[in-house]
Every structure is written in C-alpha cells, then in structure tokens.
Amino acid sequence: MHKRNYLVVVLFGLILLLTGCSQAHAANEKIHVVASVDFYGEVAQQVLGKHGTVTSVINDPNVDPHDYEPTTQIGKTVAKADIVIANGAGYDAWMTKLAKAQPDTPMITAAKVVGVKNGENEHIWYKPQAMKLMANALAKQFGKRDPQHQAAYRRNAKHYIESLKPLDQAVAQLKTLSRGQSAIVSEPVFNNALTAIGVSVADRHFAQAIEEGSDPTPADIRKNSKLLKQHQVAFVVINKQVQSKVVSNLVQQAKDNDVPILKVTETMPRKQTYLQWQLSQYRSLIKLLEK
Question: Mainly resides where (predicted)?
C-alpha cells in the first residue's frame, strides 16, 4: 500500500516536471512571422523586438506584388509561420491563398485592420494611420501568442508609433499648403496620401486605366492635356516604376506647361525604412508646393 502510494507520488511529480519543461520550452520559443512585403515585415519586427523573427516574401523593390507568383519553397515558409501578414484588398491575393491553406495560422491583413474593402484603393500603407493601426494590431496578436511578453509588444508598438511622428508633421504641413488643390496622377498609388492632405484627383478614369494595364480613352488624354495647359492642377504624381508611352507623354506635357511632377514608388526602396521612404516623398511634395 505504501509502495503504491510512493509510486503514485513519483509518477505525479514526473508529470509535473515534464509539464513544466514543456511550458518552459513553449515560453522560450520565438514567434516566427511571414509578411507578404517588407514594409509590413518591418513593423512586425519592430513590435516583436528580440522575441521573434520575420521573413518578408517580397523585399526587392523591382518585384511587383500584384503579379508575384510564389514558389513551392515560399509555400513551405508560409506553412511554418506562426502568424502571417498580408495587405489584403486584392493586392497580394497569392499570400491570402497560401495563408488560407493553413486555417489554424492567424492572418492579419492591413485591409481588415484599417477597414478597406475589396474594390477600394489597395495601397493601404499610403494612409498615414495605417502603420500605427498595424503596430497595435500586431502587438495584440503577438500578446495572444506569447502572453509572457505581452507588455513588451505593447511597449514596442508604442515606440514604433512615436517614431512616425515626422510623418504626422509632414501631413499637417501639406494640409495647409495644398489648400484644396487638385492633381493628375498616372495611377492611384499615392491617392490615399492625397486624400489625407486634402488634394483631389482630377483624372481617376485615366489613372485606373493605366493601373489595369489598358490605354486611357482619347477623351481622358484630352482632358489631362487641357488641365495642364490651363494650369487647373497643382502638380502631377507619377509612379516612376511604371513606364509607358502614355505616361511619358503625360510627363512631357507637364514639363512643357511648367507643372511640377512628384515621383513616387509602389514598393519600398532598398536600404530605406518605411519612415524614410514615406518622408522623402512627402518632403518632395512640400518643396513642390512651396515654390
């Protein structure tokens, strides 16, 4: 009887020991995140700090996320992720598809976090509040996965958000400078930023055609030509990563009529942070409007 009780106690103690080891191992495991593009990977790493790692599938500014086709290896990488981050709203549908193949893996999309529906402007990172909202959403998700470091994730998110204050200052300055002006855009990459500073887009139909890879109508081209000649727009926004004869003609017309041109990109340049990238474009626009 005493021997049986002794064995029960030993067995119970062994179970507790193994459980404790298992929990300690789980607590020491780092979170691994896979993001579709590098600027979402950046905010994820900033919030994770030393408690996790991030893999950004697209980190080359010359790769178009719309047309990207993931390899089998990328599929395996996503399958091993603890958390997946995507833009959503149709921008990186390939990532959404890969993530859905892993229904138990949480997926955070900027579209859901920011409140952008399919069919709306998918360039969500150009909304000044987007990365702040993403930082807080990621901190919350990381905290669920790793409660032990919940406070650290919240603290890291707060620090990241504070680091973006120069963007807020630039947006505030541009709101004053723009004074309800309008602009021509080669495609709607920068439209969310324009909306934030109070600049209206004068050629939405033209821009949409360019983004979809089709030719604008002759009426759209004539409209832009008239707007430029009569100086009815304050500036022209060009996505310098997309070249075509139509866009080149637009640029030349703007130059001929002394209408300033703002050049932007859809993907983050090499060796730049999200803040550096966005701030350089905002500051370029400030210079254009101050002339």
Answer: other
40, 58 contact by CB (below 8 A): no
What does the buried/exposed string (b/e) look like for 221-237 if buried means 16 or more CB atoms within 10 Å of the residue's CB?
bebbeebbeeeebbbbb
Instruction: List the structure tokens of 254.
Output: 């703007």
| Nearest Cα to Cα of residue 139 among 53, 48, 254 | 48
Cβ proximity of 172 and 150 under 8 Å: no
The Cα–Cα gap between 88 and 36 comes to 10
* Placement of tokens 């990621």 in the chain: 138
Amino acid at 200: S
| pLDDT single digits (tens) 169-225 | 999 999 999 988 999 999 999 999 999 999 999 999 898 888 888 889 999 999 999
Longest Cα separation, the chain: 102
Match 């599938």 to its residue by tokens.
57
CA distance 113 to 136: 10
CA 24 to CA 123: how far, in whole Å? 41
pLDDT the model gives residue 14: 38
Query: Could you tell me the two tokens for 258?
Result: 């002394």
Distances 97 to 76, 100, 103 between C-alpha atoms, Å: 13, 5, 11
Query: What domains sit in the chain, N to C, each tagged with a CATH number?
Result: 31-163 (3.40.50.1980), 176-290 (3.40.50.1980)
Quote the strand ranges of 186-271, DSSP E: 200-201, 235-239, 261-264
Token pair of 57, please? 């599938």
Residue 27, pLDDT > 60, answer no
Helices and strands, number each (H, E), in the chain: 13, 8
